[in-house]
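SAMPLE LOG
Freezer: B-3
Tube label: C17
Construct: single chain, 55 aa
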Amino acid sequence: MLRTVIAAAFKSKGKKVISKSELNYVLSFDLKWFTHEKSRQVVDVAIEKGLLKEE
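STRUCTURE (predicted):
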């Protein structure tokens, strides 16, 4: 499910690379799926699980 959430955020922006802050914004404000705080947690978990990487 986490993979689907992250993929949907990228797909909604039509990009292959998104900054962490932009991803938080998409999940909380554009898609309105999470609160801003919860979207941060989702992104952090995705990084921990290897679905995303920080550069």
